[in-house]
Amino acid sequence: MSANWSDPRPLSPFTSVWRWHVTMVTSILHRASGVALYGGVFVIVAWLAAAAEGPKTYMKLMSVMGSIPGRALLFAFTLALSFHLLNGVRYLMWGKGVGYDKETADRTAWVVLVLSVLLTLAIWATAYWGLNLLSVGG
Amino acid sequence: MRTSYKNVTGLGSAHKGVEHYVKQRVTAVALLVLIPLFLLQFLSSFTSGYNGVMAWLGSPFGAAVTFLCISAMVVHMRLGVQTAIEDYFGGFLRTLGLWLNNLFSLALWLTAVYALISINFGS
């Protein structure tokens, strides 16, 4: 990454030297979703601070997050969270030595990819139709 | 043990690896429970608007779940992003990145704690 990198010790391998496969995709997505969720924690803390500040600030934040770009951002955070949480279970199992063989790792990668999309849709369907949440606003 | 040569060059093990590994996994397992709990409670309090949210955050259980969840998230995200910075950046950029990561994580946590205290004990 750095142009004048002089440390002779190895860095992480770059994507250009690997053939794409599903466990690599989940590995990259795990890091990407983790970094994205950094912003997600920021939004949660902003929401908490706005609630403490008072109803006026809270309503202002609600109108920003309730707008179409705001909802798209929240949807992306939900997807990142669902994936990171489910894929994290895979890593915890690997740490116990479970499911580490190639076939199982490939299969669970696909399962996690599909389940994280389904979980995200389930959460948003519940919010929209089950709880009628986003019409509540503040 | 670190030799003086290692200290000068900054190479070799910093002996923080096990602590990093254990912290990341302990917070991961905690979050597997805390995040669903937080989301369920958050969503049901959210339906009653601002007053519902304040009532939930002002209850002992709601405040505790929120505090534990945010604390575990901040520790987990700080360690994760630290690893990403160490993987992709070297030299000054790495130092700067690690500083910003620590400061940002601490600032988020302190803001959350202050907000929870003022909701629960403020006038």
Word description of this protein:
- The complex is a heterodimer of chains A (138) and B (123).
- Chain A is mainly α.
- Chain A has one domain (21-136): Up-down Bundle (3 helical TM bundles of succinate and fumarate reductases), CATH 1.20.1300.
- Chain A has helices at 22-53, 55-66, 68-95, 102-130, 133-136.
- In chain A, α1 (22-53) packs across α3.
- The radius of gyration of chain A is 19 Å and the shape is globular.
- The relative contact order of chain A is 0.12.
- Chain B has 123 residues and is mainly alpha-helical.
- Chain B has a single domain, classed as 3 helical TM bundles of succinate and fumarate reductases (Up-down Bundle), CATH 1.20.1300.
- Helix content of chain B is 86%, strand content 0%.
- Chain B is built from five helices and no strands.
- Chain B has helices at 4-9, 17-46, 49-58, 60-88, 91-121.
- Chain B starts with a helix and ends with a helix.
- The mean pLDDT of chain B is 91.
Descriptive key words:
heterodimer; A: 138 residues; mainly alpha; 3 helical TM bundles of succinate and fumarate reductases; 5 helices; globular; B: 123 residues
Number of domains of chain A: 1
Please give the radius of gyration of chain B in angstroms: 19 Å
Judged by helices, strands and strand pairing, the structural class of chain A is mainly alpha
Oligomer: heterodimer
CATH C-level label of chain A = Mainly Alpha
CATH domain topology of chain A: 3 helical TM bundles of succinate and fumarate reductases
Low-confidence stretches of chain A: none
Global mean pLDDT of chain A: 88
At a glance:
Chain A is mainly alpha-helical. Chain A has a single domain, classed as Fumarate reductase/succinate dehydrogenase, transmembrane subunit (3 helical TM bundles of succinate and fumarate reductases, Up-down Bundle). Helix content of chain A is 76%, strand content 0%.
Break the fold down into its secondary structure elements and pairings.
The complex is a heterodimer of chains A (138) and B (123).
Chain A: H1 22-53, H2 55-66, H3 68-95, H4 102-130, H5 133-136
Chain B: H1 4-9, H2 17-46, H3 49-58, H4 60-88, H5 91-121
Helix pairs in contact in B: 2-3, 2-4, 4-5
